[in-house]
Each structure stands twice: as structure tokens, then as C-alpha cells.
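tool_log.txt
---
The assistant was asked to compare two proteins side by side. It first ran the structure predictor on the initial sequence, then on the second. Raw inputs and outputs are pasted verbatim so the downstream comparison step can read them without reformatting.
(1)
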Amino acid sequence: MSDMAKNLILWLIIVVIFMSFMQSFGYKNSNNHKIAYSTFIYELNNNQIEEAQIYKDKITVFKKNGRKYITTIPMHDNKLLDILLEKKVKILGAKPEDPSIFTSIFISWFPMILLIGVWIFFMKQIQGNGKGAMSFGKSKARMLSEDKIKITFSDVAGCDEAKEEVKELVEYLREPIKFQKLGGKIPKGILMIGPPGTGKTLLAKAIAGEAKVPFFSISGSDFVEMFVGVGASRVRDMFNQAKNTAPCIIFIDEIDAVGRQRGSGLGGGHDEREQTLNQMLVEMDGFEENESVIVIAATNRPDVLDPALLRSGRFDRQVIVDLPDIIGREKILKIHMKKVPISKDVNALLIARGTPGFSGADLSNLVNEAALYAAKNNKRLVSMNEFEKAKDKVIMGTERRSMVITDEQKECTAYHEAGHVIVGRLVPEHDPVHKVTIIPRGRALGITFFIPKNDIISISRQKLESQISTLYGGRLAEEIIYGLKKISTGSSNDIKIATSIARNMVTKWGFSEKLGPLLYTEEESEIFINKSLSKNKNISNETSCLIDKEIKNIIEKNYLRAKKLLIKNIKILHSMKDALIKYETLDSIQIDKLMNNNISKNFKKIIKKSKKENNKKIKK
């Protein structure tokens, strides 16, 4: 039964009790017995009545033999008093019986009691678990005791350097005297910086789990309210709770919600976020010492944080939790695979090689999707086939086989994707092709997926230009086959990405000979709130025109290169189109065979042979 139903039943019982109480102290009716009015008239006419007490429509009748009874006067009997006087019956006017003192008090105070009860009822509903209107300035931090945190460093993988940096926190929380003897002080604040899903929150929990100390968890947005001063009150309350349970850890997720640089927003110094930030700065490094309270915060936007928050004595240590490399991805996959029944053919290293740029959260989702595929097919173990399907789904989106596509659209899509593949294979320093498909996935009618051999740290100019050529390969294949008038809109996203790369080459990375190695664009944190400023104030109109010309030159140069490559390999373009229409999906081995055989008649044998080789490769 819900709390609402329990409260309603309770109030119903209270109302019934009050009504019974009111009834018990109400007017007291005598235990006299009631007689019909006709009987009363008969006895009156026979001179058997001695006295009659009249009150409203009731008559208490006293007979000459000492008996008495009550009867009710009919509405239209106006001659009763005359008859009573004629028969010489003593007539009395009965005074109504006064209610008891308890009844009087209850009647006068009952509306007020009812209003107070209703107010208490609704206030309890609003407050919930004591976190409502009456506790507006209380902290919303959720406390986890040391017994509830089961996560340790063994559950965290892919960020070995970050783990090493925070291990001394665990040693300090376990043995603070060891550091205090030499005058050492542990950092008061640890700021974890990294992309979303890399395990910042998990690493903070692992620190608390290893140190066996209480763990307070709160989001930066939990401090912010529309009323000024509430956030600061919550910060004070949170640190007071932490001091009472010290040593402990306070974890603030997404601290950029409240720790943004002061003076950059609206409202000036009276802004609620600034008041909250000021209180946090004082609590972390003010007059009072909080040596046993360690604050860990996480953000993926350190550039917007206030400098006072990052100075020594507050968040003076920054731990980078970056995307995992191939070894880290393999370790993360093995941790998540422990919770799933895995087949013997599953190779975690092979999956890690095919998932560059995946975060820990992405890899967790990958394992979960593979388990769902296996469960859908009533399998007991999750095999490599399910992992391949799950990887394609996570990277390229869900297949939309129910989508109705005409033969002309299918052929156009096949030429488009074949153009991407051929140019990507022939330009220098481009990532190898992993798979190409013309099965609609997500919003795309077809997808060509490239996977780098190694994790990418920096990109050369030659590789960027190769990416631009490959992006235009699909549009150029349509142009060569169908002509300029029949080019489809399927390359809109390719044009967008290619233009963005070319613009960054000119304005950020200094790859333009005419403009030189200078920065011609503003970072996101430097853009003003007023969005009407469409261009950088520091760039003249002449320089802006030159930037546009340089971007166009880079695009045209790589556009022409891709066109020449496709015209030169037109036979491969036709044969790959036929293979895609026939089989819909081609992997890297099949693509290699097609690129090395220019005769389209042999592509059936090539596909069958490549499938066998691919299966042998997976088994190895």
C-alpha cells in the first residue's frame, strides 16, 4: 500500500472518531417512548392527559396515571392549543437541552483543527523524506557508508596513470600519521578531467572503496536554485556533515554547473551561481582547516572553471582521465565480460582493436548489446558474432531493413559508398576500410566505416587532406556515373565534415601558406553570450575573405584528386557496386580482393573465398 493511501485511511479514521465524539456529546434524547399522534388525540379527548411540554414539533405528554411519552405534531394541526386549553391540560414550553462544554469547545475549534491537519498532511507530502520546503537549504548530497561501497581499484581499468595519482589519497586516508610526521599535507581537492564516460565517477568510488571511508555524492546542479543564497546554504550544510563524519570524501559531479568563471554571466555578483561558488571557495580553503575532508570533482570542461577554484590549496591537483588506449580497452572489456557468459571464440584484444575512441561507458554498452543479441537468439553463450553485430550497432546504428528503397536508390547508394571505399584505399595515410554496407542504419542509407591501425594521438596535414578526398568520393562517384544534374543529397554530411576539417586547417592548425601559423578563431569559452556576433572581432574583412579562399583551395585540390582516382579505377567502381547490390555488406578482406581484381565477372568467387579467409582469421 502506498504512503498516500495510508495517510488517507488514517485521516478517514480520525474524522470518524471526531464525528462519534460529536455525536456522543450532542443533544441527549430521552429514553421516552414514542406514540402515534392519533393515540394522543384520543387520550386527550378522554381527559387522560395531565400535562404537555411542547418544543417545536415535539410534545412530551404526561398522563394522569404517571406515564409519559413523546409524539410529533402534524404540520397542519393549528387547533391543538385550543383543544388543550379546552380540556384544561397544563401546557409548558420545554427549553432545549444545552450541549455539553466538550461539545461546545469541539464545535468551535473543529474547523481550525481540520485546517491544521490538512496543512500538516500536505506539507509531509511535499517534504517527502525530509528534503522538502522546510529543509530548503539542506544539502542534497547522498551519503554512502564505507560498508556500502564495494568498488575497488580492481574494478577500474583503462586509466592506469590516473589510478597511480590517486593511490596516495588512499594511503593518506588509511594512515594520515605517516604523512603528518614529515609535515606533508594531502591535496584538499582533486579535479578529474576527461571526456564523458571515461570513468571519473567510478574512479572516485574506487578511492572511497579502497580507503573505507564515507562517500558523499552530489551533482553541481543540485546546488543551484532560483532563490539566491540557497546554494551557499547547501554548501555549508554539506561540509558540516562531512566534518562530522571525517575522514571522508566529497564527490561533486559536473562541477562546471556551479564553478563557472565569475563575471561572465548575467546578474553580476548577486547571481546564485556566484554566491554558491564563493561559499565553496571559502569552505575548501578559508580560515577553518578541513584536512580530513577531501573534495573530488569531475568535469569535461575545465576551460570554463573559475581560476580561484583551480589555485593551489583548493583543486590544486588535476587528474586526467582520458579515453583508453587499446590495452586499456582490452582490460575494460575483460572486466565487463566477467558478468556475461562468454564463448571461447571471443577475443577481447580483437574487439579492442576495432573500437578506437570508445570510452569505458561505450565498451560497457557494447558488451550489454552483445548479451542482448545472444539472449534474443536463445543462446547460452555470447559469441564473437554477437560482438560484431553489437559493434556495428553501436558505431553505425540499428539496421533499418524494413525501409522501402527502390532499385535506383539502391544502385545510387552502392556507387556512393564504393566511391568512399576506393578513394580511401588509394589516398596516402588514410585509415584502412573495415566495412562498407548499403543497409540503412540510423539516418544514413549506407555507411563506409574506417578503423585506424593504432590509436590516433596527432594527425598530419597529409592525412587530413586524404580524409577530405575520401569524404568527396561518394559525391564524385554519383557525378561520374549519373552526371551533375542527378547528384543526390546523400553527401550533405560529408560536405559538412570536409568543410569543417578544411576550416580548422586554415584557422586553427596553421596549414595555410598565405595566412601562416596563426590562430584565426575563438575557443568556445571565449565566445560572448551575445550570439549576434557572427565573426571574430579580431579578424578584418580582408583576412576573412582570404580564409574563405584558402578553405576553397584545399577543398578543390582534394576534390580533383579524388575525381582522378575514381575515373582511373572506374572498373573497380562498377564491380564494387555490383558486389554491394548482391551482398549488401562487404568486409575488409572482400574489399581487398575486389581492389586487386578489375574483372567484375569474378566478384562472386572473390566474395566466397574472402568469407572463408575471414572466418579463419577470426578463429585465429
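(2)
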Amino acid sequence: MDFFLAITYATTVIIFLYFIYMLLEGIFSNKKGNVNNRTPPKVAGAWPVIGHLHLFSGSNQPHKTFGLMADKYGPIFTVKFGVHQVLVVNDSKIAQDCLTTNDKALASRPKSLAVELLAYNYAVFGLGPYGPYWRELKKIVVLELLSNHRVQMFRHIREFQVKTTIKTTYEKWSKEKMNDSSNFVKIEMKEWFENLTMTIIVRMLFGKELEVQDGKRARKAMTNFFKLLGAFVVADYIPSLRCLDIGGYEKEMKENAKEIDYILEKWLVEHKKKTSCGEKKCEDEKDFMDIMLSLFEDAMDEDLAAFDADTIIKSTCLSMLAGGSDTIVVSLTWTLSLLLNNPQVMEKAQEELDIQVGRNTLVDESHINNLVFLQAITKESLRLYPPGPLLAPHESLEDCTIGGYNIPKGTRVLFNLWKIQRDSIIWSEPDLFKPERFLTTHKDLDVKGNHFELIPFGAGRRICPGISSTLVLLHLTLANLLHSFKITRPSDEPIDMTASFATKATPLEVLVAPRLSLDLYY
């Protein structure tokens, strides 16, 4: 009992001190604001200690809450999340200012418990702070792992695995239809996408065919990784309360990090053993871990920017595994959901596939450039349902000016894609699924960070480096799925498009039946 009383007393003292601190800070910041009126609008209703966090409790979706705030305060404003000042950007022109003129000033990432514990103490470069280590790792990833040449080198893996999964689905249909008068079989598509994507990415990264047990273990570890990465951790906003581990997240993160490291270490040791035994691969046979090992073979016992070579290799592979699999699965699930709710669009896409590919072959990557309507569908889906409606947060490295306002060093910056990509000034009927807009009024827009009206993968220095690889697999998978099968909803009810708090697509059950010549499935 004494222990709990002590904890309660300590918590009360900390909260009281924070109350005094926030009160004084509010008084002095208001005085400064009277002298200098070039600060962004501040959202009203902040509470002592926690700031505006109470406005995001319960089932409130942050991107929609920010959107309502933008309607009231304008396209750029600040909120207080615990001890942190957060700038929220809801406009494409201001986003362009941030990610071009102020790109370097806003190039860092804020620290968090999840990135510290789950991402090898910030060694995962996509989540870590801006600096020499980040610049060097990004250069390696872009030039050595995600160049157009490397993407093409793994084409055979993508095509083989997609076609194998299509054929396995046909075999399931062939067996189950014997016991069912219906011509359709039920498939859970989110799991289907997860299995396919994980298999492909693991083969590209580690050159492995996932065994059933290893596959389950890896998928479970990565599912927990994403859940914890998006968790609300009190210590991120009130650091002095970290010792309490409210919610038990720190313990859970350490356990998950240990599990992921066990898997990656096992695969790294396997690669090292093959190398030490004199096994050599030609350049076209190397997987990503092979390439990383060769890059660091002369520095295996040296520290590189505070991280040893093994940590750099494992953390970079984790970055590729996490970034690729989650983005593709979420995007494919939302896209198929939209098509099921708009069957006339799906029929048009299948007509294009019949014309450009033909009904006597499955789709390969050489067909993709000619599938312009399919690409338009993907863009429209990424506009309405980007993998994350809020981009990963940025943090200012120095004082800067954004949208005419003075932004101090250390400010966290959030880009509300949900508001930016549904701006009625730019997009007619912005909430409707209309892929044809990318064949007419918006045909020149791409998703590669060149047009700030549509930046589902970000832009500037912190843009996702794997856009090309992601789009190739996304288009190849969607094209083969639509070309190979008739796909319908299990009921007359439309697919629920309500996103969860973490904006991850929910499980999606569909009915499928073959639509091509049956001999193609063998």
C-alpha cells in the first residue's frame, strides 16, 4: 500500500508543477504574442499539463478533428500536446512552402518512446532524426537498394509470387465449389494481401521462402510493431511520467523489439555463415541483406555513426520490411473496398485489362504502363485513403517562417493529408471516388512528391524512398486480382469505409470466382 501511496503522491506533485509551468508559460507567451503578431493561430481549449490532448480522446479521428479546426482557425494553426508545440498544416500551398523552401529546416523527426525502443534507438533511418547518419543511410538505400535497376532486378520475384498466389486462390475455389452450389468462394482479402506482400518483401530482403511457422511469427511481430508504433504513449507528451509506464507500453515495446531482433539476427547469422563458407552470388542473385553485408564488410568491427554494422543492417532491413508491407497492404485493401462499393468502376478496369492484356494470359509488369485507368484508380484511392492521413511528424531544426508565421526551433509539424487531398478548391466533389479525374482535369498529377495537392508518400527530403517499388507491386497485384477473378461483396450492404483510429484498413471478406480460361491457373 505504501508503494501505491508514494506513486500517487509523486504523480500529484508532478502534475501540480506542470500546472504552474503551463500557467506561467501561457502568461508569458500571451505577452510575447502582443509584441509579435506573426505566430500561427492557437486553438482554444487547452488544459493545463495535457494541452489539447483531451480533444483527441475516445473515437475521435485526429485527421478529422484537425480538419474541423482548420474550418475554424484557417489552414495553419498550433495545438499543444503535453509539453510539445505542434503546427498543423491543412493546405497544399503551405505544405509546398514547408517541403521546398523550408525542407531542410523541417527535415528532422521528433523523438518518441516507440522509435527509441522498437527502432534500434533511432537507427531505423526513416524514423530517426536528421543528421549525418540519416543522410548516409538514405544515400545507401536510394542508390543501392531502391534504384530503378534494383527494382527491376527483383521483378521475377514479384511476378512469380503474385501468379503463384493467384493460382493458389483458384485451387481453393476449385476445391470448395464442389461442396457449395454457389460459384463463388469467400476470401479474407486483407490477410491475402498481407501474406502475399510479406512473402515478396522477405524474399527480396533476405532471399528466403517463409516457412509456415516462421511466417506466422514474423507477421505477428510486425503486426505488434505497427500497433505499438501508433500507440498513444503518455510519456511522449509528459516525459517525466515515463517511470510510471502508464498503459504498460514500454514493457510491451521492449518485448516486441526483442522478438523482431531475434528474427532479424537469425537471418543475418544465416547470411554470414554462407559468406564465411565461401558461397558467392552473382550480382543479380543478391538479396538486400547480401548487399548490405558487402557494403559494410570492411567495417564490421567498427562503429559507424554511433551504430555498429550489424545494427545498421538489421535496422535498415526492418525499415524496408515495415515501410513496404504496411503501406501496400493498407493501400490495396482500401482500393478494393472502393471498387466493391463502385462496381461500375471495377467493370471498367476489367474491360481495360481484357483489351490491354487479353483473356489468354496473366498480367506481368510490362503491361502496367498501358493500364492507364487502373493507375487512375490507384491515384484516386491514395487521394481518398492515403496509407496515413497524417504524414509522419516532422520537427523544426531551426527557427523558420512558414505561411508568413514565425515557427520556433523544436516545433513538431503535422501534415493533414485528409484535408489537403480533399480540398474542394482543387478537387471537384472531393469526397467522391472518381478515378476518371486523373484522365482529364488532373491527368498530369503524380504521387511522387512533385504535386503538393497529392502527397500520400510525402515530399522533400523525408519522402518515402520506396515509392517506385511500392507502386510497381501495388499495380501488379491489383491488376492480376481484377483480371483473374470476379469479385463481389458477400451481402448487399456496402463496405464500411470508416477508418479506425490508426487509419488501418479493417478485414475485408469478399466472394471470388475465376473469370479467365481455367488452364491459365495451372
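---
observation on (2): The mean pLDDT is 88. Residues 2-35 form the longest helix (34 residues).
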